Amino acid sequence: MDFFQVISLEEALQRLRNHFPDNRLEIEEVSLLQAQNRFLAEDLSAAENVPDFNRSTVDGYAVKAADTFGAGESLPSLLMAAGSVRMGQKAEMTLQKGQAVAVPTGGMLPEGADSVVMVEYSEQFDADTIAVYKPVSPGENVIARGDDLRQDEAILSRGTWLTAKHIAMLAACGIGRVKVYRPVKFAIISTGDEIIEIDQPQNIGQIRDINSYGLASIIAQWGGEVTYRAIVKDDYEALKQAMTEGLAQADVLLTSGGSSVGERDYTYRLMQELCGEDVFVKGIAIKPGKPTIVGRADGKPVMGLPGHPSAAMTVFRVLMSTILKQWGLNLQETLVPARLSINLPSAPGKTTFQMVSLQQEQNGFVAVPIFGKSGMIHLLGHSDGYIVLEAHQEGLEQNQQVLVHLL
Amino acid sequence: MDFFQVISLEEALQRLRNHFPDNRLEIEEVSLLQAQNRFLAEDLSAAENVPDFNRSTVDGYAVKAADTFGAGESLPSLLMAAGSVRMGQKAEMTLQKGQAVAVPTGGMLPEGADSVVMVEYSEQFDADTIAVYKPVSPGENVIARGDDLRQDEAILSRGTWLTAKHIAMLAACGIGRVKVYRPVKFAIISTGDEIIEIDQPQNIGQIRDINSYGLASIIAQWGGEVTYRAIVKDDYEALKQAMTEGLAQADVLLTSGGSSVGERDYTYRLMQELCGEDVFVKGIAIKPGKPTIVGRADGKPVMGLPGHPSAAMTVFRVLMSTILKQWGLNLQETLVPARLSINLPSAPGKTTFQMVSLQQEQNGFVAVPIFGKSGMIHLLGHSDGYIVLEAHQEGLEQNQQVLVHLL
């Protein structure tokens, strides 16, 4: 039996975008510290100018720059001392031509001043006179009102994946609570008579349920939740019940395993029962991961993932991140440029995901491909990321620069 | 007043290592799914060989490779059919010279067999005879016992920061529970009359408590916990009480702010009271972050961080990661090679941490330095990472390859 109608990865991703066009996630408001690793559900803009006044970046004298032009060590500009501004206080005076007002670092410039002469280049001559020994240009030693952030300027856009730097920036903007999408809920079902819980003693031919853990750990990395999990024997009724229950309890239903013909039959049959006409991916021209099935039931993605853990994890990352982006979660991948250690042939007509380890060298990295032959644990444990060989690519050459998608 | 006795970054890190030589964190056991983003507190090795038997990677016939040497399309090797092995079952027979035993993908090779002929290159001639049309070499199409993982082979070492790939690998090894270090507890105190809570209306000269959020978000990223937090006015008794309480409730005490002379005095005086002789860093030759103080009280790190958020966050990352590594938490930084967009002067005698944004170009990245002049929020929001200019470096040139430490 072969029900696969293999399509290109590009076509598969396009079908995913077409079938999951918009966001289905509710929005909740959380405090800033709870917002980390969540996805922003609103566009944020600045409520005020930052700074809210022209601020000195040095200790010195606020002046009109034009009054200092031509000043030098031997011939200082002499300005009239017109008071001082204290830290944390409003500058009440207006600076007139020929005047200088003392300001501290962080202090407010009086109206009329356009620059600050550093204290090092000035001298209080007498009670009324300030000598300036070096000219300043307009704007020098000043952060102007709104320089850092203009009122109504966009700060962060909807979908931003909030990390430490965003939290600090939002704090700086005085934003203590933000709207974020609620975590995406996943159901994970592993199928097959041979699947056992990971801590069970393993007999010959039995396979530990690695996929549940591998997928759950990616989901956790993305800030999602596993709300349903089951290991189901090779039994139509049991699988039907698990898939129905999983679908009810989650936003996304994942099944993996199904290496035997019987299991694949059941999974496929049940996907058709759940999704009706909406089983729109039945095999993808990728390596590994060809036997991937995707459908839609109750508006939710239903994915039949390959049984091999490394393949299941890679396919899940690529397909699911596409759907999550449609839902407004702007997942960011980290890409690291590296030099390829060996020639790498491509698989004609297939997009290849090649696992690699990264080794640091002088000012850069070498990507060393890891092959499956040496085994699954080896592959899982030593891979730092993967590189993508497009279906049309001829293969990659040793020492060629590649971009590694970090795991 | 200037109490700073500035030392090099290298010297500061060495003093940190000397003062915090060993681990002070208790160990707890958690299930694998709870172990993500935690640090492994044990060396793990394989309890068994993986696979535990010689396993076929194809559907075909298990043979002695020598029996197929010379086989070809026109002159096949004829072998005696000696039964079959079923998936998930032990191979009970011993293969003799001249015999072939049918094995499925994933099945166990009988003793005596050293390779598998793919079914495509063989044919059942009659009930007793298998024709082999292509020679195999010893080991071909076989994952030998222990090939993936040898019994007692090291899998992961103490201190590993557990991510998705480790979780999947441990699941594959049948390890369902692991020992991890309990989260490190931090106390964060922001000092200064001018500090207000982030969502308070801000008057001229007031500064929002950005540091608490910036530091807390790095701590969360590292899997730590903030167990005490306070904003304290410029008041000796209040600061003393907060620092004493914070020290009691955490493993690490952080203070930040103290931009005024009075605040710095108080912080320094109290650090001396808490730490006695053990204030061993009083200024570091780094830019930004010179006014950094570090001591030890009750065996715990006490850090006085600079007030500027970006400086406080960078200094905290660099110093604290050094201490956490001493404590057995093997924090991993992500480094991305990039081309520098402009010439970058160094600060003679100082280690410079230069914030940069990363822009993708063909097969790589450009690092674009971001300068503080345009303001704090700009700096926080647009930085993707930083590059380090060593104290002895002359500066960096445009288009030079640099390594960006991702935030």
What is the beta-strand fraction of chain A?
25-35%
Largest interface summary: A-B, 84 and 85 residues
Q: Which fold name corresponds to the CATH topology of the largest domain in chain A?
A: Molybdenum Cofactor Biosythetic Enzyme, Chain A
Tally of individual helices of chain A: 7
* Class from secondary-structure proportions of chain A: alpha/beta
What distance lies between the first and last C-alpha atoms of chain A, to the nearest angstrom? 35 Å
Overall tally of domains of chain A: 4
Using the coordinates above, name the CATH class of the largest domain in chain A.
Answer: Alpha Beta
Low-confidence stretches of chain A: none
**CATH superfamily heading of the largest domain in chain A:** MoaB/Mog-like domain
Reported for the largest beta sheet of chain A, the result is:
6 strands, mixed
Mean pLDDT of chain A: 92
Radius of gyration of chain A: 31 Å
- The share of residues in helices of chain A is 10-25%
Oligomer: homodimer
Which architecture of the largest domain in chain A does the CATH hierarchy give at level 2?
3-Layer(aba) Sandwich
Approximate shape of chain A? elongated
For the secondary structure, the number of strands of chain A is 28
What does this structure look like?
2 copies of one chain form a homodimer. A 6-stranded mixed sheet of chain A has the order 7-4-6-5-9-8, with no helix packed on it. The first copy, chain A, is built from 7 helices and 28 strands. The first copy, chain A, has helices at 9-19, 164-172, 210-221, 236-249, 261-275, 309-326, 376-382, and strands at 27-31, 44-45, 55-56, 60-63, 77-84, 99-103, 115-118, 122-126, 129-132, 142-143, 154-156, 177-181, 185-191, 195-196, 207-208, 225-232, 252-257, 279-282, 286-287, 293-297, 300-305, 335-340, 344-345, 351-361, 364-369, 385-389, 395-396, 401-406. Chain A is elongated and about 95 Å long. In chain A, 21% of the residues lie in helices and 32% in strands. The longest helix of chain A has 18 residues, at 309-326. Chain A has 4 domains: 9-24 and 182-326, Molybdenum Cofactor Biosythetic Enzyme, Chain A, CATH 3.40.980; 28-50 and 155-180, Alpha-Beta Complex (Molybdopterin biosynthesis moea protein, domain 2), CATH 3.90.105.10; 55-143, Molybdopterin biosynthesis moea protein, domain 3 (Molybdopterin biosynthesis moeA protein, domain 3), CATH 2.170.190.11; 335-406, MoeA, C-terminal, domain IV (Beta-clip, Beta Barrel). The model of chain A has no long low-confidence stretch (mean pLDDT 92). Chain A is of the alpha/beta class. Chains A and B meet through helix 2, helix 3, strand 22, helix 7 and strand 28 of A and helix 2, helix 3, strand 22, helix 7 and strand 28 of B.
